[in-house]
From TrEMBL:
Residues 329-342 have a biased composition (Basic and acidic residues). It comes from the Eukaryota. Keywords: Repeat, TPR repeat. This is Superkiller protein 3. GO terms for biological process: RNA catabolic process.
């Protein structure tokens, strides 16, 4: 024991000497001897602490505490230890400090107890978080065990609660922000919902309210208590907002009580006062506490709601008494507010309304003010916002606020009754009915429904509602309204008495009373006006007129009285000027005065003041009076929309006018004039189908109308014809114009429209290729023009149409003889000085002298074409004379003359011949002058510059280029100009620029055919004939039938392709170019070359009659031309035509004519000065044709002679050798046959591999039974049949000959050899029918026959050249009944097909 004490003393000495290792060793030795030694553990813990061995130190102290828990020494060491680790051990520090303080409390050591707590709180504030600080501060609270012992030595509880509340406030704020930031990133999260959810979760479990209550309870300062009462109310209010509806009741009571307390204490906290006033759901405003309202104004004078409240309480409609007691006056002085004027009061309230947009009560008060001022639009707007705010406040508080909602709805519905009536009546009716379902006797709702029913002309029900309202009120206004309904219902007498009775009750000087009195006097006047409709009574100035004047004396701004006075002056007073002033005044005061507006609009329309008509109509539409409410018996008003449509139509605002007329027709679907206006608007905007329907509806109204004036109306028929014309339905349009002219024979505009339609129809027929119809239409147009000129011959459009009609004959020259030249001359000579035709006569040579010789004997088409050209130019010159005073029309007239001159130049080129002299340029120069004059009048017209560029292309390329570029500067999207510019570059051999210009043209309009012809010409220049042909073909496919150049290029390129390539698969491929050439013949009848080309195409499709007729005409024209010119070139063309004609006669089996024409061609082509290449071809064709003709005539010697001559001239042509061999063999003599064999052997020797010679020699060998030759031929044929260049027809002939050889000349296995040959043919050409047909004839199987039918069908036209008979044979070979029937149908002349049916 003594050793233990000694060791403890030594340990204590070591600690004092700072020898902590020795102290640890001594303490451990003591504990080894006595593990329950308290002091040893304390010394050990202290030693470890000094050496910063905190865990060992804590363990030693804890061991000591287990021995003596109430001893302060170990607790002091532990507190000291935790103090050193305050940044990490605040939790343990808290428990140790509390225990130590309690020990000191038990020992009644207040100083040391206080010191421990203060040091702990200080360390918690310094090192800990807000949570640690809040926990440390809680030791000072009255709820702690040490509060009573240390009371007076520690901070006041209020101060501590404030600190803790501030900590909790910061923690909640951070938590809310963190949670919102985390949840808002979730998929589908909405920020508003996330915020509400987070606040509800956190505020619902918040400790702040308890802390605020504690601060309020323990604080001795009123300022602090008020501050935390505000915070408490705000927090409770925020919690109420976040809570769901089922949980709001208790919290709302708490909020209400808190707000009530603050208001009672007259504490100026805005939220409390707003809750007190806003949540007070009163039915009438006068139920509110006036004193409370005035206190609110006093406390918050600059707040928006205070301004609204002050203005309302000082207004005339305020139900609150004005302050009269001295105390009240003093209160007013304190408010520093003097009574405001009405204007200042309204300004103040409007300003306050902007600042208090969240106040329900402010909206309610402002709505009543606006309603009292008849500012119905503002009242409706404010009350709508108030209803929205009421709903929001109801959701916040959980209160129904039904009275406030009903009050807002009443204000809104009452405003909607009057605002733009009757537009909003359905909504107002719905609101009133909703109120009456809860409050059956609500006066405002009854009155409102009565007014709506009155507007809907449902007077009996309106009277009933007014009577119900009068049971609860005796207002003169309601009595007068009920009486007026009776008048509108037809009871003018009783209404008059009741209104006069009401008038006596309307005494007063205020504005509303004056307005009501004015309205009543007006209604009395209207009762008198309608009661006695006699003219004398209405003229009586002591009757209704006097009442209208009295009404205006009561209120000078009562608009209906001005309207009635205007009607009086207009209809009875005979004072139009005063009537117009009255109507203007009425409409200025109220846009709802529809009658005044209508009369004004008509007056303005009569004086062509369309801007004023538009203003009047637009104001009436905006008033809301034009469209009745749904369910109303009242009819809508259509005239404002119609008037607006007319104005917009005049202003060329067609889209707007369509909408206006449609709106008018919705109200008045049988309004004839609106349908006309709508149709005209559609027509002018390019919507022709819709315009057609509109005019057709107008015509149906005409037919069913009782008004005689509508039945005789012609305008709809005229406009419908215009629409048909725009749609290209010219026949219907012309018929329509003729029908109108039957009703209005002297209507010049309709006559001109008929004339223009005939001309346009003729041009349309030219484009479609109906040239005869075009000529007939143009002729008829000229006759119509003559009848028009009898009444009026000074119209530009008349002469332009005449010129266009005559120019049509230059585009259909085959029908130029149909030009009524006598009519035309009389038309040009009628009523005019012939000097007008001398325009440009010095250049083009066409003037009055031309007119005098216009009618001459014409025996050919060329003369008629020339006459039509002259007629066109003279008509366009006359057009220039008629528009001398119209600059724009004069420019167009010069432009038209320029094109007429250019057409004359083009036609002179078409009629010229290659051998003739250079054609005259007089018309081209005149065209240049005309286009220049047009540009002088209108330099900004892109078409004028384009035309000048065209006519100067040959005369001056630089001017032409400048003109095209100028035109493109004005409109760079014009595909025609780009095409013309490309053509200019092509003529000048600038191929790159030409290609670029043509590319731009194609991009601007891919459907413009000439834009594809240009690249075709360019490709032809570059020797790319295939590309050129494709481009010409495409241009022809997309072009109309008016262009001759496209037809020429297409036909020539197609023919070049035909003669350079193997035969086309079908003769139908030649039809399209043939049709093009037939059209070209009708357009340019003098073009001999293309007429010749047409006959060649006709020959290829085996239309020999057409080919012979065409070539006969060509030969005749060339003969006449040669006799006139004796040109070798013409002679060669004549010989070629005769040679081709001989070939056609040969195909027609007219052998005599063929031989004769061939001999003629040989004689003509015998000259030495002719082109040698062409001469040889012509002579070869003539020799061959003559030889064949003589052969078929049976004159073999002449045939052989012709072939020998052909053979000599061609130097052994193998084709001619084969023909000669056939003819020699056919002659029958042994010598001739030997010569034929020798010729064929020589041909094969000189031309090895020539198939025709081998086949012919093989056939002769088979007939001669020459086995050696047959074997040699058979070997050659076997090698020839595998050649890739062998034609299908040759392959078929080779296969047939081999089959014959196999069947006739092979002794062994004859049938097997035949089948082998047929099988070989199938293998070499499986897609050809001849091999399958052979195999089908040798085999009993059905498959080869079926394959023969299949391949033959594919080889038939248009996909192949298989003959009809061959196709029929393949069907007959299947031995099936259905195929046999098809064979008969395909080739009924074949005996084989009929035999297959047996």
């Amino acid at each position: 024991m003594s050793a233990t004490k000694s060791a403890l003393k030594a340990a204590k000495a070591a600690l004092d000497a700072h020898k902590y290792e020795d102290a640890i060793e001594l303490a451990n030795s003591v504990l080894a001897a006595d593990p329950r030694n308290y002091n040893a553990n304390v010394f050990l813990g202290l030693a470890y602490e000094k050496q910063d061995q905190y865990e060992a130190s804590e363990k030693a102290y804890r061991a000591a505490l287990k021995l003596k828990e109430k001893d302060p020494l170990a607790w002091q060491g532990l507190v000291t230890l935790y103090e050193k680790q305050a940044d990490t051990k605040l939790g343990e520090y808290h428990d140790a400090a509390i225990h130590l303080a309690q020990i000191f409390m038990e020992k009644d050591d207040k100083i040391r107890c206080q010191s421990v707590l203060e040091k702990y709180v200080g360390d918690a504030r310094k090192y800990g978080s807000r949570t640690h600080l809040k926990r440390s501060l809680e030791v000072y609270l009255p709820t702690g065990a040490l509060y009573e012992y240390l009371e007076g030595r520690i901070p006041q509880p209020a101060h501590t609660y404030v600190k803790i509340a501030e900590i909790v406030e910061a923690e909640e704020k951070e938590k809310i922000n963190a949670e919102i930031g985390q949840r808002r990133t979730r998929l589908g999260a909405k920020i508003d919902q996330v915020t509400a959810d987070v606040k509800r979760e956190i505020l619902e479990g918040s400790q702040l309210e308890a802390l605020y209550f504690a601060v309020i309870d323990w604080s001795h300062e009123d300022e602090v208590r008020r501050q935390y009462e505000e915070k408490l109310l705000q927090h409770a209010y925020d919690t109420l907002i976040a809570l769901p509806s089922p949980k709001k009741a208790d919290k709302r009571k708490q909020v209400t009580d808190l707000a009530q307390g603050l208001v009672i204490l007259k504490h100026p906290f805005l939220l409390a006062w707003r809750i007190k006033l806003e949540w007070n759901d009163v039915q009438e405003i006068d139920e509110l506490d006036a004193g409370l309202l005035r206190e609110y104004i006093a406390f918050f004078p600059e707040e928006g709601f205070s301004k609204v409240l002050r203005g309302y309480m000082e207004s005339d409609i305020s139900p609150f008494p004005k302050p009269a007691t001295p105390s009240d006056e003093e209160a007013r002085e304190k408010e520093d507010s003097e009574p405001l004027s009405a204007e200042d009061r309204l300004i103040l309230m409007a300003e306050g309304m902007q600042e208090s947009s969240s106040s329900m009560l402010a909206h309610r008060l402002m709505g009543q003010i606006y309603l009292n001022l008849d500012e119905n639009e503002s009242a409706a707007s404010v009350s709508r916002q108030g209803l929205i705010r009421t709903t929001t406040e109801s959701n916040i508080s959980g209160l129904a606020l039904q009275n406030t909602r009903d009050a807002m709805s009443t204000i809104l519905a009452t405003a909607l009754v009057h605002f733009q009536a009757p537009r909003h009546h359905p909504e107002a009716m719905e609101l009133f009915e909703d109120i009456l379902r809860r409050k059956e006797t609500e006066t405002s709702a009854l009155i409102g429904i009565g007014l709506i029913l009155e507007e809907q002309e449902n007077y009996s029900e309106a009277i009933d509602f007014f009577d119900r309202a009068l049971k609860r009120t005796s207002e003169p206004r309601i009595k007068a309204e009920a009486a007026w309904c009776k008048a509108l219902n037809g009871d003018n007498e009783s209404s008059l008495h009741e209104l006069e009775a009401c008038l006596s009750e309307m005494e007063g000087s205020d504005t509303r009373t004056k307005s009501l009195r004015s309205q009543t006097l007006y209604r009395i006047g209207m009762c008198m006006w309608n009661q006695d409709t006699a003219i004398g009574s209405r003229k009586d100035r002591n009757g209704a007129y006097a009442r209208f004047l009295a009404s205006l004396q009561a209120d000078m701004n009562f608009a209906p009285s001005y309207t009635s006075l205007g009607v009086y002056y207009a209809d009875y007073g005979r004072d139009k000027k005063r009537a117009r002033k009255c109507f203007q005044k009425a409409f200025e005061l109220s846009s709802s005065e529809v009658e005044a507006a209508e009369r004004l609009a008509k007056s303005f329309a009569r004086s062509a003041e369309w801007d004023l008509v538009e203003v009047v109509a637009q104001r009436v539409i905006e008033s809301g009076k034009v469209k009745p409410a749904p369910g109303s018996k009242k009819k809508g008003i259509s005239w404002p929309f119609a008037a607006l449509g007319v104005v917009q139509l005049n202003n060329q605002e067609y889209a707007k006018s369509i909408v206006s007329f449609q709106s008018a027709l919705r109200t008045a679907p049988t309004n004839y004039h609106c349908w006309i206006g709508l149709g005209e608007s559609y027509h002018n905007s390019g919507r022709y189908i819709a315009a057609t329907k509109a005019f057709e509806q107008a015509q149906r109204l005409e037919d069913s109308a009782e008004d005689v004036s509508l039945k005789d109306n012609w305008f709809s028929k005229y406009m419908l014809a215009n629409v048909r014309r725009e749609l290209g339905e010219y026949d219907e349009a012309i018929a329509g114009y003729r029908e109108v002219l039957k009703m209005r024979p002297n209507e010049f505009g309709v006559s001109i429209a008929l004339l223009q339609s005939l001309v346009e129809c003729a041009w349309h027929h030219v484009e479609l290729g109906f040239y005869g119809r075009a000529a007939d239409g143009a002729s008829e147009a000229i006759s119509i023009a003559q009848s028009i000129s009898e009444n009026r011959n000074d119209a530009f459009n008349l002469w332009k149409a005449v010129g266009d009609a005559s120019s049509i004959f230059t585009y259909v020259q085959a029908y130029a003889s149909r030009l009524p030249i006598q009519v035309f001359r009389s038309l040009l000579e009628a009523g005019i000085d012939l000097e007008v035709y001398e325009i440009l006569a010095d250049i083009d040579g066409i003037g009055k002298s031309t007119l005098q010789t216009l009618v001459s004997e014409s025996d050919n088409t060329t003369s008629f074409v020339k006459l039509s050209i002259h007629a066109t130019i003279l008509a366009q010159k006359r057009a220039i004379h008629t528009c001398a005073n119209d600059i724009h029309a004069r420019a167009v007239a010069w432009y038209n003359l320029g094109w007429a001159e250019h057409r004359a130049h083009a036609c002179s080129g078409e009629q010229g011949q290659p051998g003739s002299k250079k054609r005259s340029l007089k018309h081209l120069k005149a065209s240049v002058q005309a286009f220049k004059r047009a540009i002088e009048h209108e330099a900004g017209n892109t078409e004028f510059w384009n035309s000048l560029g065209i006519v100067t292309t040959d005369l001056n390329p630089k001017v032409s280029q400048h003109s095209f570029i100028r035109s493109l500067y004005l409109n760079d999207k014009n595909t025609r100009v780009w095409t013309n510019l490309g053509t200019l570059y092509l003529i000048q051999h600038d191929y790159q620029l030409a290609n670029e210009a043509f590319t731009r043209a194609q991009s601007c309009d891919p459907d413009y055919a000439q834009a594809w012809v240009g690249p075709g010409l360019l490709a032809a220049q570059l020797a790319d004939q295939e590309e050129a042909r494709n481009l010409f073909t495409h241009a022809f496919e997309i072009a109309d039938s008016s262009s001759t150049m496209i037809k020429r290029q297409y036909a020539v390129s197609t023919f070049d392709h035909v003669i350079k390539t193997p035969p086309l698969r079908s003769s139908t491929d030649n039809l399209q170019p043939l049709f093009a050439l037939h059209q070209l013949r009708s357009q340019v009848s003098s073009d001999i070359a293309f007429q010749h080309l047409s006959s060649l195409f006709a020959e290829r499709i085996r239309d020999f009659a057409d080919a012979a007729a065409s070539l006969g005409q060509v030969a005749l024209k060339l003969e006449l031309e040669y006799e006139a010119s004796e040109s070798p070139h013409i002679l060669m063309r004549f010989a070629q035509a005769k040679a081709d004609l001989a070939r056609i006669h040969l195909a027609e089996r007219n052998f005599d004519a063929a031989a004769e024409d061939a001999e003629t061609a040989l004689n003509l082509a015998d000259g030495e000065d002719l082109d040698e290449t062409v001469r040889q071809l012509v002579r070869l064709s003539a020799h061959m044709t003559a030889g064949l003709a003589y052969y078929y005539q049976g004159t073999m010697d002449q045939a052989i002679s012709m072939f020998r001559s052909a053979l000599e001239e061609t130097r052994g042509n193998p084709d001619i050798i084969c023909l000669l061999a056939q003819i020699l063999w056919a002659k029958g003599g042994e010598e001739e046959r030997n010569v034929a064999r020798e010729q064929l052997f020589d041909c094969i020797e000189n031309h090895p591999g020539y198939v025709e010679a081998v086949i012919l020699l093989g056939a002769i060998a088979v007939l001669d039974d020459d086995r050696d030759t047959v074997e040699a031929v058979r070997a050659d044929l076997q090698s020839l049949r595998t050649r890739e260049d062998l034609k299908e027809q040759q392959q078929s002939r080779v296969a047939q000959l081999l089959s014959v050889i196999s069947s006739l000349h092979l002794e062994r296995d004859r049938e097997g050899e035949e089948i082998s040959e047929a099988t070989t043919s199938v293998m070499l050409a499986p897609s050809k029918p001849y091999g399958w047909s052979q195999l089908a004839g040798l085999s009993e199987e059905t498959y080869p026959a079926e394959m023969a039918v299949l391949t033959a069908t594919k080889a038939a036209p248009p996909r192949g050249m298989l003959e009809t008979a061959d196709l029929a044979r393949t069907h007959a070979g299947t031995r099936r009944l259905d195929d046999a029937q098809k064979a008969v149908m395909i080739a009924p002349w074949l005996y084989l097909t009929r035999e297959a049916l047996v």
